[in-house]
Design brief:
It is a single chain. The chain is of the alpha/beta class. The chain folds into three domains: about 240 residues, Rossmann fold (3-Layer(aba) Sandwich), CATH 3.40.50.300; about 150 residues, P-loop containing nucleotide triphosphate hydrolases (Rossmann fold), CATH 3.40.50.300; about 60 residues, no CATH class. It is about 35% helix and about 25% strand.
Length: about 500
């Protein structure tokens, strides 16, 4: 399985790095080097220590023990500025751009050319155009960054890193918010960046991306480095076993079950809504229907309309055989329709609030005692769902921001499930969570369907769509263009409908 790697010159090395947070061991004696001309992928479950090592490389975090070596000499970065001056740039999952400022100002941030004591805007534009061209960003330098797509903003951040003459480029989950073709374009760019003699460290949960682009792969588990290997000859199964210590025969396999009803729980006929031109579909009790399509095809907009977050402008919707047209999310919840949104941090959670308050938020109406919430009922509810979904928390009053992405997603799911929905709407339920948490989410979906809940879920990950659904609906340009049996569907068919309608 493990092949020899042609070695380039190490541009930065971490030697026996240790790091603790509040007594917990985040990194345990990690040694790893990044070499010129290669893409080095770092994988592991949430909490394995990947981002901590990235922040140590970039000077944002100081190790408790161990050292960094650059060009054969030991170095210590007192902060990100020192690391950038040494040619090391970190592109975070949450991009560090100044939205109202232009592309040129963001690309040249900290490097502004001057003339006679004033900023030379002409040279700034020229610099921006040069680096934008290098990364394939085709926008005017005067465009405000906040007007760009997430994929374009990623390119602005990378262009800024290259403008700093960075030799080491570290990217933490850069494709988590990108569509498939956007992610493919970014990986192609990273190959060019590495080919030009730079070292690229790519941290990602997307194992198909790792297998496609990695020259070397390092696997972390529980703060320890468990393997470094060539990217050639490795399989997804190999990586999953190394990451989790468990052997998943299939991450998204559905439990054997049948729909509990021939009549649909949800029936949508020629729905029109913002972003939706003409959508028709059915979801039965105990059935998982996956929605595929490109970003902008109307998938999320369909869920928003069904949840009452946007106005249904035409067509008919039936829930349990009765006409259904929710005027608000509150009304949708009262009818037994729950939504887990794509952006859990901004739309699904109150990050500074405790796990307890987040989890019970949607179900407070079931626990009122006069004007007050019955504390005992709330505690029992929280304890029940934390146990059932195996949410890893220090305590119910821990801020939800302190949890891993997978456990945050479980809190959002628990919040909605506590309302006892008959129809569950899931928008990219596994985005930004690790491979083990993805398997747990799909297992939970199958379990909930087995209990008779109807599930409609959107995903951009084709293996999840094909293996995690009973039926697949494909959307293109705001329309439902295909209704497929997941058992007989394949990636080529889904992709053809998604692109061509």
């Amino acid at each position: 399985m493990i092949a020899e790697v042609e070695t380039g010159a190490p541009l930065i090395e971490a030697l026996d790095i240790d790091k603790r947070y509040d007594g917990a061991h985040a990194l345990k004696g990690v040694t790893l080097d990044l070499r010129a001309g290669e893409i080095h992928c770092l994988v592991g479950e949430n909490g394995a220590g990947k981002s901590t090592l990235a922040k140590i490389f970039s000077g944002e975090v100081q190790p408790d023990a161990g050292s960094l070596r650059q060009n054969g000499a030991e170095v210590a970065f007192g902060g990100p500025r020192a690391a950038m001056a040494a040619g090391i740039a970190l592109v975070h999952q949450e991009l560090n751009l100044i939205g109202p400022m232009s592309v040129a100002e963001n690309v040249g941030l900290g490097l502004e050319p001057s003339r006679f004591g004033f900023m030379d805007k002409r040279r700034l534009r020229q610099m921006s155009l040069a680096y934008s061209h290098e990364v394939g960003l085709d926008v005017q330098p005067d465009t405000a960054v906040e007007r760009l797509s997430i994929a374009q903003q990623q390119l602005v951040e990378i262009a800024h890193a290259l403008a700093l003459e960075s030799r080491v480029l570290i990217l933490d989950e850069p494709t988590s918010s990108l569509a498939g073709h956007e992610a493919a374009a970014l990986l192609k760019l990273l190959r060019e960046v590495a080919k030009n003699g730079r070292a690229v460290l790519l941290i990602t949960h997307q194992l198909d991306e790792v297998l496609e682009c990695a020259d070397r792969i390092t696997v972390f588990r529980d703060g320890s480095l468990v393997a470094t290997m060539s990217g050639r000859g490795v399989t997804e199964k190999d990586l999953i076993k190394l990451m989790t210590g468990r052997d998943f025969s299939s991450m998204y396999r559905l439990e054997a079950r049948q729909s509990t009803s021939a009549d649909p729980i949800l029936e949508v006929r020629h729905l029109r809504a913002p972003g939706v031109v003409d959508a028709s579909l059915q979801v039965r009790a105990g059935e998982i229907v996956g929605v595929g399509g490109l970003v902008g095809s109307g998938r999320t907009e369909l869920l928003m309309a069904l949840y009452g977050a946007t106005r249904i402008e035409g067509g008919e919707v039936f829930l349990g055989g009765a006409r259904y047209r929710p005027a608000s999310p509150h009304q949708a919840l009262s009818k037994g329709v729950g939504l887990v949104p794509e952006n859990r941090k901004d739309e699904g959670l109150v990050l500074d609030a405790p796990v307890r308050n987040n989890l019970s938020l949607a179900a407070l109406g079931h626990m009122n005692r006069g004007p007050f919430v019955a504390a005992g009922a709330e505690s029992r509810l929280v304890h029940s769902w934390v146990g059932r979904l195996q949410i890893k928390i220090r305590g119910a009053m821990s801020p939800v921001s302190s949890l891993s992405g997978g456990n945050q997603q479980k809190v959002v799911l628990s919040k909605i499930l506590a309302t006892k929905p008959v129809l569950l709407l899931l928008d990219e339920p596994t985005r930004g969570i690790d491979v083990g948490a993805k398997a747990e989410v799909h297992a939970l979906m199958s379990e909930l369907a087995g209990e008779g809940i109807a599930i409609l879920f959107v995903t951009s990950v084709l293996p999840e769509l094909l293996m995690g659904s009973d039926r697949i609906v494909v959307m293109h340009a705001g329309r439902t263009v295909a209704n497929l049996d997941a058992k007989s569907a394949d990636e080529e068919t889904v992709t053809r409908y998604a692109f061509q309608g």
